[in-house]
Amino acid sequence: MASSEEAAFLRGDVGVDGEAIEEARDEAQISRAKAIEGLTKNRAYLGREFLTWLLWRSASGDPIANVDGESVTTLLVGDVVLRGLAGEATELAVKGHTSAYAEIVRIAIDRGLLVHRARLRIQHGEQVFEVTVDAEQLDFRSANLPALLREEEDDRITERLWLTERLGSLVDGLWEAFAKVRTTRRWQKTEVPALKAWLLE
Length: 201
Description:
Blueprint: H1 3-11, H2 22-58, E1 65-67, E2 70-83, E3 91-94, H3 103-110, E4 114-124, E5 127-134, E6 139-144, H4 153-182, H5 186-199
Antiparallel strand pairs: 1-2, 2-3, 2-4, 4-5, 5-6
């Protein structure tokens, strides 16, 4: 192999036979990008179902999950963003402290939009957390932790880390409660009809 051909081979521009492989590499990259896009869309849709389910379940004020022997209740507070895949409107942003429970939100959900981003107030025992959750990857956007009790700076850092982990485990607990229902026949038999009845109240 000439030095220029060898350099092209080492860069991955040509194969062993000296033929260019740029086209094959591009196809692989395109295929991979499509797979990632499809996976992200599926995750986002499931995340939207989760947040919409939380909205419905939280409206009653009843506990939604149980973590470490204590009940977890949730309330959606502040602005909420809803998204859909098709229709006249594919996104709706509603502002206000209790906007998530407004009639316009229920109408939008009934017409095919789902909650895409919401601020959750999560109560676990005496502790109250707030976190903004995005359905795309179930990312946390911002969080308010309960007041710190420790006086020493090192202890306060440790306590803050513990509370951050606790918040993650509470959201995991809510997700598990949703997944237990979503992956069974109960979802279509009882949950969806009850949610639809709530939308029409």
